Amino acid sequence: MEDRCRTDPLDWLQNHTKTRDDHWREKGTEPYARFPMMPYMRFLFERLCNAKRLFTPKSREMMLSWAVMGYAVWMCQWHPEIQIIVQSAREDKSVDLVTGRERPGYCRVLWENQDESLKRDHPQTKPPSEMAGDLFSWENGSEIRAVPAGGDQFRQYHPFCCILNECAYLPEAEASFNAAHPVATQIICVSSAGPSWFMDICDGVMELP
């Protein structure tokens, strides 16, 4: 199992951990569930693992934010000394993607709900309940950190990856991208549709022959 998870982040996400469903009461289901088997996920994860600069439009039910954060947690668990920075338009949304405050954030949920043997093999620097809401860190030196909006937020870091969440609605998104570009090995921009610099980039790619 460990070897398969190490080489295949989608297998780990779909078969060895769970995500949080904020609408479980209305559905009459459990609050935590396996990541769904969606046909485009294999292609997405191939791009996540190989693309240096990735722009990914989404709709509300596509699970792309969970997929991207799942990739981030997988990277940090199986690769030491990795830093990933997450930026959203609102600080509380960035925090919710990482450790969370009032409720467990995406990264914390994925770590806590994975197989017990994997939690033992990839320990945290402290219990997740004691971590700051904007930081999730492993004993191997890897971490995922949330930052607020602003084009200068990346300048103090030299991360492996920067994630611009809901990029179409992120103030100074282009400035954030330009600040991260010289120092980040990978930049992932994901967003629902909206007139913006992000959508101009996506439209430009779609128009290429």
Question: What does this protein look like?
Answer:
With 209 residues, this protein is an alpha/beta fold. It has one domain (2-206): Rossmann fold (3-Layer(aba) Sandwich), CATH 3.40.50.300. It is built from ten helices and eight strands. It has a six-stranded mixed beta sheet with strand order 3-8-7-4-6-5, with helices on both faces. A two-stranded antiparallel sheet has the order 1-2. Strand 5 (135-137) and strand 6 (143-147) form a beta hairpin. Helix 2 packs across helix 5 and helix 5 (64-78) packs across helix 7 (106-112). The N and C termini lie far apart (42 Å).
Task: List its traits.
Rossmann fold; alpha/beta; 209 residues; two-stranded antiparallel ribbon; 10 helices; 6-stranded mixed β-sheet
The main sheet orders its strands as 3-8-7-4-6-5
What is the CATH superfamily classification? Answer: P-loop containing nucleotide triphosphate hydrolases
Approximately how much helix is present in the residues? 25-40%
Beta-strand residue fraction: 15-25%
Q: Determine the number of helices (DSSP H or I, runs of at least 4 residues).
A: 10
Number of strands: 8
Distance between the termini: 42 Å
What's the architecture, going by CATH? 3-Layer(aba) Sandwich
Envelope shape: globular
The Rg value, from CA coordinates, equals: 16 Å
Domain module tally: 1
Q: Any low-confidence stretches, pLDDT <50, length ≥5? A: none
Mean pLDDT across all residues, rounded?
91
The description of the largest β-sheet is:
6 strands, mixed
Class in CATH?
Alpha Beta
Q: Kindly identify the CATH topology.
A: Rossmann fold
Order of helices and strands: HHEHEHEHEHHHEEEHEH
Broad structural category: alpha/beta
